[in-house]
Amino acid sequence: MSASTVEQRVKFSDLSRDSKAVAAAADRGPVTITRRDGDELVLMRKAEADADRAGLALAAQIVAVAVSDWPSSFAARLREPFPWMIFLSDAEQEAFTDDLVRTARACASVAQFEPLSTVIHAWMSTAQAKAAGWDRTEYVWLDEQVEVERPDGGE
């Protein structure tokens, strides 16, 4: 759903009289279109509708896993819809599970599901990196910036 917190309502006749203004309002968030002789309609950007649909599909997967009768932990059951989790350590799988649940609840409370998708893609990127052989233990993280010479000897 939209980031707009102000409900926008217009009459159906406004679509033909001032469609440009109604479209501009829809760019700011969903617009409820009232009709005398029918149910209300909602006009919104397709990207918002797609994001809502994707977010609800993800939420449905999470609920399905949560209520399943598999005898394993919730994190282990999440490997069914998210098979890439196998590349994460047990601690990372638990962290992903916590992030996923907290973010899903927060997203549902504000009707914004893009952050849920972001969390999933971030963790999936971590799993992809680990599957490709990248491991954070291979690096030495510096506390302070260090100046290095250019490899070509130039400035």
From TrEMBL:
Name by which UniProt lists this protein: Type II toxin-antitoxin system Phd/YefM family antitoxin
Highest taxon, organism lineage: Bacteria
